[in-house]
Write a structure and sequence with these properties.
150 residues; two-stranded parallel ribbon
């Protein structure tokens, strides 16, 4: 059912805090690299731009939940909403996927604005191509930005 946007933001922050405590933090303490999906940028895009909550408040909440651990690199696979929607099975949409075109356009705008504001932290990849070409762009970009072979 409907979840209040603030409650949704708190649930995301709680999940992120637990993930930091149990997975990310220990891996970083061991000197390992961490690749994770849907981190702080997603909260800012979905709950901030998408749901209309304060970006400043969400930034504070996310920073607190993650103990200040921001990613060195954020990879954004950018695709127009209509392309993303065509890739989904309409019978299995979750609450975010079913939120509608206007919501997804606000989320995409949020991601692209954040990427434009911090180009050294964000790697924007056109995600409309074939999987092997998009993968090659990601690998090349990660190597160029972080000096890592992946």
């Amino acid at each position: 059912g409907d979840i209040d946007p603030r409650a949704e933001a708190l649930l995301m922050a709680a999940d992120r805090a637990q993930h930091m405590a149990r997975v990310i933090g220990p891996a970083l303490a061991e000197g390992r690299y961490v690749v994770t999906d849907r981190y702080i940028g997603s909260s800012l895009a979905y709950q901030g731009y998408g749901r209309g909550l304060s970006i400043d408040e969400l930034t504070w909440l996310s920073t607190w939940a993650t103990r200040g651990q921001w990613p060195d690199l954020i990879v954004l696979l950018d695709v127009p909403h209509e392309v993303a929607a065509s890739r989904l099975d309409p019978t299995t949409l979750d609450r975010f996927e079913a939120a509608g075109t206007a919501f997804h356009e606000r989320v995409r705008r949020g991601f692209t604005e954040m990427a434009a504001a911090e180009p050294s932290r964000w790697l924007v990849i056109d995600g409309t191509g074939a999987v092997d070409r998009v993968t090659a762009k990601i690998l090349s970009g990660v190597h160029d930005r972080l000096g890592l072979r992946v």
